[in-house]
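Give me the fold.
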Amino acid sequence: MAHANVISRMGTKGFGWCFSFLLAALVTWAFHDPANAALNYYWFGTITAIGMFAFDLLPNFVVAVLLLMYYIIMGVCAPEVAFVGWTTPIPWLSMCGMLIGVLMDKTRLSRRIALFVVSRVGTTPIRLYSAFLGAGFLLNAIIPDIITVDILFMTIAGGMCEALRLDPNSRASTTLILAAFFGATISAACFLPNNTGIIGLLMVKDMGVPFTWGGFLVEQLPYQLCHALLAFAILHVFGGKALGEIISRCRASAEADLLELGKIRRVEKKTLILALCALVAFVSEPLHGIPGYFAFCGTVLLGFTPIFGLMDVDALKEIQFPILFFIAGCMAIGIVAGSLGIPAWLSAKIVPYLQQIESLAGICFFSYWVGIIANLVLTPVAAATALSVPLAEIATNLGIGIKPVLYSFLYGVDQFFLPYELAPALIMFATGYVRVRYLLPLMTLRMILAGFALLFVSSVVWPLIGLA
């Protein structure tokens, strides 16, 4: 039996290798530019790496680092471009988020919170989904950064996985982590500033398109509520039964374990204070002028100092440093694409097709898929920067409102197949409780159904509220 399983895995791996190289060759052939060898090498190496991620052919850390080496060796970009991801806040935010998670686990604060959620709030999977979504709307309304909210949610969800003793390879663990991820990210899209959308919104503001905090919320709610309903429904069908059985089995013991923990201890209070100080350091950026991301990281690292005295060298041993290299490597895909001029190329290739569509729903649906395609080969920031103004200009020329077209495009940019496409998804993946083999089909199905939800909203709801 074991021999048969080994053969089966070898067959799957062999198919994965063949498919990855064939797909890379096909894409390179389709987009071949005889005058730009670096661009051709980019397509081949990047698509091969994406296939390796999807089929789990090598450890993700190895694939990410190999891709960076490939970019440099093949002359796709200079080393300072390939490694520029380390100069962005994302790897450092992820590291400090892991440190907070390690600290909350060490002090048992995450276990206390997780046991409380399991025993008092999330007593069924559906109640758990609702709790995550409600908490997401509350926190995103007061915290102007999805990265921070995502880190908080992933810390709590990771603690719940630990408290429920979930297998990292199980459907239940994937369901729980993705429920927290959906709760954090879907609700975040309803509020300004939205990390992806704010760039596009600022770019079209000069075209006379006004945006207010309250108005933006009202305009986003119809689609995002439909999106949340579909996302949680997909998740429930996938792993709700398995998660429900584990929650039911653990509820009684969770209540007993919560009582056994007793009153909250001093070290737990200090941990909570450190986390809150880091949050305040971020949101008070307009007051102190220090970039919020780095203020957050610097505050977390105060946990090593006598001021808090909460962490030591052992905490560093708990950090999954390979994941940080994976994150930086994945970010390089979009950064290198920008250095090769792919944003302008993508705009020139895709935008003309929009000029041939006349209905609002059709243009919105097409813009949605433009966002998805752009996000495959660019970072969300690069995609929003390259295409927001061209899409707004086409909407104006066709006599259609800019907002529906731009919103639809940004909804597409927020979708993803694999974690490398979106920073919050990278943080979610860093928990270690989600597997690519589950993530790929779930995100693909969500992407397709969300497109049909957009068709409904753009055809029925937006005209009713004057957004057309």
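The radius of gyration is 23 Å.
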